Amino acid sequence: ADGMSAIASAGNGITISGGAVGNQIGGSGTAGNVISGFGNIGIEVTFGSHGNAIQGNLLGVNATASGVLASGAVGITLNGVSNTLIGGSAAGEGNTFGGFANTAIWILGGGASISVQGNFFGTDATQTASYANGTAVDIWNATSSTIGGTSAGAGNVIANSTGSAIKVLSPSTGISILGNSISLNTGLGIDLSADG
Description:
single chain; 6-stranded parallel β-sheet; 39% strand; mainly beta
């Protein structure tokens, strides 16, 4: 497979569960994966898993990030996990997300110490492509986590969402949203009550 057309699957693209620790999905340079064509969730991390990193992957788009490949409604779900890094501030560590009708990243279940950095939502690394997500980052219940950052390369690029770019719902606490480029979204850039 060349990553330019979908090989359909009804389930998840990748699942990490059972308290799995220290796993790496993708990486910078040529280490990233094309994770598209799945029917449910691209990457699901659950049940106390921690210390995992998801970097340099193309989720919901083709191998050149030039278009969307039909996939499920959610790119990454983090359910009850901690110390998890999605993306990174170094060149090539950010993931690209496109075509997720619900949300690109969904954080729930009391997750803690989650960092979402240097990713591209609704566009590619050159910021010339355009593809919609419903929401870029949807936080239902998390603590002490950061979307973006103040160091070079830590900010995410979030564009072309059909809803709000970032949602944060109670009882989430200690969520820092820093240094991101948020533009061309239909809803609010940052929605702290999920009311649009």
